[in-house]
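ingest -> validate -> predict -> emit
validate: passed (alphabet ok, no gaps, 67 aa)
predict: started
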Amino acid sequence: MTERCITCGDVAVPMRIVELRGASAVCVDEDAVLHDDVAVELVEPVAAGQRVLVHAGVAIARVAEPA
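emit:
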């Protein structure tokens, strides 16, 4: 069973930043689905190509590349 946030019911999802747009970013998830309004203020500075963990439309952590 996947743990879900008790506040919003969402789960954190690893995504890759495709494009930065000010304080938000276009990201793609592991299923190649685009998410075009991910807030990145909490993990700045970030760049296109970096992986982040996204919860409820907000990047909450940077994710290291798998070894």
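DSSP finds no helices and five strands in the chain.
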